[in-house]
Amino acid sequence: MTDITIRYKDKPLFQRAEFSLPTRYTSNLQDYSCFFYINKGSYQTIEANGIFKVGEKEALLKKCGNYISYFPSSEEQVYAEAIAVYFHTDIIKSIYSNEMVDFFNKSKERSTPKKLANELIEKYVNNLIVYLDNPSLIDEELAALKFKELILILMKSQHSDSIQTFFADLFNYQELEFKTIIENNIFNDISIEELAFICHKSLSSFKRLFKATFNETPARYIKRRRLEHAAQLISTSAENISHIACDCGFNDPTTFSAVFSNQFGVSPTTYRHQNRKDLTQKGK
Fold it and tell me: Which of 148, 169, 190 corresponds to the end of one domain?
């Protein structure tokens, strides 16, 4: 990964980074949040609320927390490019110290928008890239103006209510319950180590808490839930079995078929035929 960073009061404020494809890594936003824009390529992130995907010229807002980030391979590109604008609470307070602003007040909207994309955002990022290409052109006063410009664009967008909630929650962070994080990610392609990471636990403490909560080991519980969900989808839908495997957290169809056969005694295809026949007979 290569990056260029513009700092404000010794903290990163704007950043451009290039990633070779494919790339998967963990990241921690401990004391700040960010606006994350994909300028080239596509991006997937797994976090406490589940998995989110954004494409080229789209952005998302990332709250403080632990993330699994993934830039998938592409036939058209050899690298991806992302632009980040960081929201440090102390920097926000410093920039807006002499102004009356209301976007830190709570709104009725409780969800953060999953994708952000419009012409104003794209033009803003293109202009910001000029400064990232030439960091000597921007001082702290101009950096503060560019920062406020982004917030104004976001607050004027169609997601203004949920964006107001996002900024209000910067000062009132609440961690999701352990069981909620597990349920949000039970069918995602994520390892036990990565799941422990987004739960802010060491692997050993994660396994202990998991066993105490679900009365099963993580590996056994997750495999059982994924296979049960896959079996339900196979018997009640016409979806391609490989697609079902992927949707249930199995990225290798061959491995999925072997694990499924071991659990249910028949292949996924045979299971589908048998259960569809049973459903047809019950309907008569």
Answer: 169
C-alpha to C-alpha distance for 135 and 146, rounded to whole angstroms: 13
Q: What is the CATH number of the domain that holds 230?
A: 1.10.10.60
Burial class (CB in 10 A: 0-12, 13-18, 19+), 112: buried
Q: How far apart are CA 146 and CA 133, in angstroms?
A: 15
Rounded Cα distance, 49 and 186, in Å: 11
C-alpha torsion sign, points 42, 130, 163, 68: positive
**Which residue segment(s) compose the domain that 85 sits in?**
2-169
Contact 26, 67 (CB under 8 A): yes
Q: Look at the chain and report how many structural domains it folds into.
A: 2
pLDDT per residue as tens digits for the range 94-127:
888 776 566 566 555 555 556 888 899 999 999 9
Q: For residue 189, tell me if it sits in a domain.
A: no
- The pTM for the full model equals 0.85
Torsion sign, CA atoms 22, 24, 25, 31: positive
For residue range 176-202, what is the model confidence (pLDDT) as tens digits? 899 999 999 999 999 999 999 999 999
* Residue 153, C-beta contacts closer than 8 angstroms, at least 6 positions apart: 120, 121, 124
C-alpha neighbours within 13 Å on the C-beta side of residue 109: 16
- The pairing of beta strand 11-20 with beta strand 79-88: antiparallel
pLDDT per residue as tens digits for the range 54-65: 999 999 999 888
Per-residue model confidence as pLDDT tens digits over 145-185: 999 999 999 988 887 778 877 877 775 656 789 999 999 99
* Alpha carbon distance 115, 71 (integer Å): 16
Is the separation of the CB atoms in 88 and 30 below 8 Å?
A: no
